[in-house]
Fold this protein.
Amino acid sequence: MQGHRAKSNHTALCLKNGEESMKRVKPTLLVIDDDCEVLETSSALLRHFGFTVISTSSPVEALHLLQNNAEIDGVVSDFRMPIMDGEELAQAARMLRPELPVIILSGTFPPKRHPVPWDAWILKGSSITDLVARLDAVTFKCGSPCSEPRQQRRNAS
């Protein structure tokens, strides 16, 4: 008999033939890009590598999703977008969920100022394995609030 029950947002307790084992589960990412083709491609690639993806082309909708979905473990956003750029989105996301990892995926180099409201800046066109490794490093970092079980995070809200 096989079964599966969630233990935390990044770890699942898997039951196989009555034996329990721990299995690392990829986080749920909110992906934002105003270019629909880039959004679809990025989302598909991240899903291929095991991430659960919620996507939108609207930064305003992204903030609404963050407010109403505790399952989101990290944000991957374009930088240059109309209405609200990636920096403004990252700042607003941090106001809603200070512990949330924010990754900018952009075709431009990052601005040279500090502090910045994101955890990582990845250039579009980087290899997908580099992107996945950076996402894993940011979303699975030790001691991060995102490594707490989702239920604990919900109760703290």
Remarks:
- The first helix runs from residue 36 to 48.
- Confidence is low (pLDDT under 50) at residues 1-16, 142-157.
